[in-house]
């Protein structure tokens, strides 16, 4: 009886517990069914999320183009590879849709992904063991080019998929690199890091879109996918004032000097002094944004690196003295050294003593004493400071580039006021010098420099914003500017001039000023000594009467041969770029020189036969390059009427295009060929073409992908650039404090 009673009690307890548990579970079930939530999480939203794929539609970053519409930076398609390793994905199918032979696939992929076959196989097998649907291959599986993608697709390996991505591509390689800048991938977006890419990042970047749809366990879109698409808003295009042809001339000249002289640093900038438009700008060290490697200089020294300019500063000392009416070119003074009653130590001329000479000859010889006496005895230091500020040496130019730094007028002590007159102590940037000198070239009107020409809607082509020339001041009169140019011309033409027989152009007159600035030694606090430890520079404008271009070049600590002038590498850059640029711009020569044909106008060859077109181009002194074996002109690389350099290549596309031999072509020629044919081109290295991925004679299609490898030209060790030099102009120095 006791046992039965206990059994009944326990049965009742268990039944009660069951009823309570049932009520709790039922209540919980009814609550979930009624609210559709668990712990505050919506089950509907959770389920939708689990079976919905969402992707970012990346906005295409706007292009950066030169003044004539030549692309300097644009987005380029690359791919990320993945491999499906889930065997169930191929169930019931005649052909596998996953990687069915891992070892074979690994052997085939290894050379194309630059990976070890065993490592590829390990990744795929591990993915299978972990029950993963697909696997990726790390950094080796990303940024795959179109050419590599096509080679992998030709292997016909089942289960291999590609996802399209984009990287920023710079078709000219090392080309105005610190001006254009670089954009790099950050999460799902390209971000500008420096240069125009950073300065105009908001304009270039656009806004990403998105796409979402419902899918099954195998990532396949459902029949009713509930697809939602938000289109991307592409970035706008930014046109620069940079001219690709002039910039190419500058880059080539600087690369040659870099190779021959191995300088510590170089800067150069070419500007239209009438408008302030910068048409070329470059620095060394530089970098190739497509193949970064180790970058030693991210900054644009033209705008970001203040330095003691040396004797180019005498341009503005002279201008201030003329404007105030205290400069008499025929007045004599005693050269050699100078010390006033406020100075504890004298300053010296760079070449000792020329005796008693005129102030005009003093400017020609780049006399520090002449500049010092003009400031201290003629102008007065306070008045000279007013002119320094009028030329804006105490402030930024406002150029539309990031990280601009102003120079500093060192003007506290009498010795500093004197040395500023010839460019020592006080610091400036090259762009400050250029803006100030625009007043001399432009009838006293000082123009604000700029590099952004306009912003254009990338979809409609509508101009959204366009920059116009802006005057920053008028520090001197037009008459003073003319007198300064006249005297600066004699720096080049006079037998006493520091630029005589060094900076002369064949067809154009030049007004300019040389500079040989001492370099402060951070360790000793003194200036460096030695023939090579200077910053050699030149600021020149041409044609002298009505300058169309103005250029500044500086070369720091070049490797010179015995008795070689520091002006040699500077003049090589200036003369090559300035002479050819003026001819390219079709500026009428103001000096007679009939030795060679400079520029020619591109004739109209549209619709002609190949033979007729070739004959017409050759008669103009141009070099036709025929693309293909056809008989008719389908298209050509230059516009009718366009001004071309003598012996420049003109590419002619026939109706049967074939791959030419590009060996020895410049990068510019290869890119022109790509633009004409429409094929995609990838460049590697710098210099001239040495290898090509498509064999000569292969029929070309518009979707072809060409890889061209470049290499610098081989030069003998003794092939340094040589210029005719004036033995009196080897080093004019900045003097000593």
From TrEMBL:
Q: What general EC class does the enzyme of this chain belong to?
A: hydrolase
Q: What is its EC number?
A: 3.4.16.4
- The domain of life is Bacteria
Q: Which residues form a coiled coil?
A: none
Q: Which Pfam families does the protein's record reference?
A: PASTA (PF03793), PBP_dimer (PF03717), Transpeptidase (PF00905)
UniProt cross-references to CDD domains, sorted A to Z: PASTA_Pbp2x-like_1 (cd06576), PASTA_Pbp2x-like_2 (cd06575)
For region Disordered, the annotated ranges are 709-737
Gene3D superfamilies attached to this UniProt entry: 2.20.70.70, 3.30.70.2110, DD-peptidase/beta-lactamase superfamily, Penicillin-binding protein 2a (Domain 2)
Alphabetically ordered keywords of this record: Membrane, Transmembrane, Transmembrane helix
Instruction: Tell me what reaction this enzyme catalyses.
Output: Preferential cleavage: (Ac)2-L-Lys-D-Ala-|-D-Ala. Also transpeptidation of peptidyl-alanyl moieties that are N-acyl substituents of D-alanine
Q: Which SUPFAM superfamilies match?
A: beta-lactamase/transpeptidase-like (SSF56601), Penicillin binding protein dimerisation domain (SSF56519), Penicillin-binding protein 2x (pbp-2x), c-terminal domain (SSF54184)
In this chain, composition skew of type Basic and acidic residues spans 714-724
The family annotation for this protein states: Belongs to the transpeptidase family.
The protein's name in its UniProt record: serine-type D-Ala-D-Ala carboxypeptidase
**What is the species listed in this Swiss-Prot or TrEMBL entry?**
Sediminibacillus halophilus
| Species classification | Bacteria, Bacillati, Bacillota, Bacilli, Bacillales
């Amino acid at each position: 009886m006791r046992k039965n009673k206990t059994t009944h009690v326990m049965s009742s307890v268990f039944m009660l517990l069951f009823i309570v548990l049932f009520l709790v579970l039922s209540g919980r079930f009814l609550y979930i069914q009624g609210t559709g939530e668990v712990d505050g999480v919506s089950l509907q939203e959770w389920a939708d999320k689990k079976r919905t794929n969402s992707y970012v539609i990346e906005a295409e970053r706007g292009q950066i183009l030169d003044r004539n519409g030549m692309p300097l930076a644009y987005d380029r398609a690359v791919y990320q590879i993945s491999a499906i390793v889930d065997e169930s994905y191929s169930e019931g199918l005649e052909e596998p849709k996953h990687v069915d032979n891992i070892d074979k696939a690994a052997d085939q992929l290894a050379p194309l992904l630059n990976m070890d076959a065993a490592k590829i196989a390990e990744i795929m097998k591990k993915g299978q063991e972990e029950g993963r649907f697909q696997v990726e291959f790390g950094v080796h599986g990303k940024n795959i080019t179109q050419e590599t993608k096509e080679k992998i697709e030709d292997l016909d390996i089942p289960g291999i998929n590609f996802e399209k991505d984009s990287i920023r591509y710079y078709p000219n390689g090392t080309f105005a690199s610190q001006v254009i800048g670089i954009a790099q991938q950050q999460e799902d977006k390209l971000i500008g890091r420096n240069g125009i890419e950073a300065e105009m990042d908001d304009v270039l970047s656009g806004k990403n879109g998105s796409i979402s749809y419902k899918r099954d366990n195998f990532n396949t879109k459902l029949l009713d996918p509930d697809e939602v698409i938000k289109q991307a808003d592409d970035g706008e295009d930014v046109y620069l004032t940079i001219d690709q042809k002039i910039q190419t001339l500058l880059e080539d000249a600087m690369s040659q000097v870099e190779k021959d002289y191995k300088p510590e640093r170089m800067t150069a900038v070419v500007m239209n002094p009438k408008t302030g438009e910068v048409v070329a700008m470059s620095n060394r060290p530089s970098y190739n944004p497509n193949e970064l490697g180790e970058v030693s200089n991210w900054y644009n020294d033209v705008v970001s690196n203040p330095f003691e300019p040396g004797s180019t500063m005498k341009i503005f000392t002279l201008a201030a003295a003329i404007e105030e009416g205290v400069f008499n070119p025929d007045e004599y003074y005693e050269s050699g050294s100078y010390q006033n009653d406020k100075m504890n130590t004298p300053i010296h001329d760079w070449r000792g003593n020329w005796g008693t000479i005129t102030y005009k000859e003093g400017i020609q010889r780049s006399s520090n004493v002449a500049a010092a006496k003009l400031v201290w005895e003629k102008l007065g230091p306070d008045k000279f400071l007013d002119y320094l500020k009028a030329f804006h040496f105490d402030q930024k130019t406002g150029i539309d580039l990031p990280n601009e730094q102003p120079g500093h007028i060192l003007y506290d002590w009498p010795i500093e006021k004197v040395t500023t007159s010839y460019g020592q102590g006080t610091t400036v940037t090259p762009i400050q010098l250029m803006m100030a000198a625009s007043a001399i070239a432009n009838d006293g009107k000082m123009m604000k420099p700029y590099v952004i020409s306009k912003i254009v809607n990338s979809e409609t082509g509508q101009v959204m914003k366009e920059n116009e020339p802006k005057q920053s001041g008028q520090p001197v009169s037009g008459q003073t500017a003319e007198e300064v140019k006249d005297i600066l011309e004699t720096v080049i033409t006079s037998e006493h001039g520091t630029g005589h027989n060094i900076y002369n152009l064949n067809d154009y007159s030049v007004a300019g000023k040389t500079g040989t600035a001492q370099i402060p030694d951070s360790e000793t606090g003194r200036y460096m000594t030695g023939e090579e430890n200077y910053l050699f520079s030149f600021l020149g404008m041409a044609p002298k009467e009505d300058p169309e271009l103005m250029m500044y070049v500086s070369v720091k600590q070049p490797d010179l041969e015995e008795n070689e002038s520091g002006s040699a590498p500077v003049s090589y850059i200036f003369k090559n770029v300035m002479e050819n640029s003026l001819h390219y711009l079709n500026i009428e020569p103001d000096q007679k020189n009939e030795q060679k044909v400079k520029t020619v106008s591109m004739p109209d060859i549209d619709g002609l036969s190949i033979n007729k077109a070739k004959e017409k181009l050759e008669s103009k002194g141009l070099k036709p390059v025929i693309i293909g074996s056809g008989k008719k002109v389908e298209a050509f690389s230059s516009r009718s009427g366009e001004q071309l350099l003598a012996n420049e290549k003109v590419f002619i596309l026939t109706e049967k295009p074939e791959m030419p031999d590009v060996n020895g072509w410049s990068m510019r020629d290869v890119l022109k060929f790509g633009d004409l044919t429409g094929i995609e081109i990838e460049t590697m290295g710098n210099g001239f073409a040495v290898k090509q991925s498509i064999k000569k004679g292969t029929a070309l299609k518009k979707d072809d992908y060409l890889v061209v490898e470049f290499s610098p030209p081989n030069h003998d060790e003794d092939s340094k650039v040589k210029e005719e030099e004036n033995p009196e102009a080897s080093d004019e120095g900045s003097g000593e404090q």
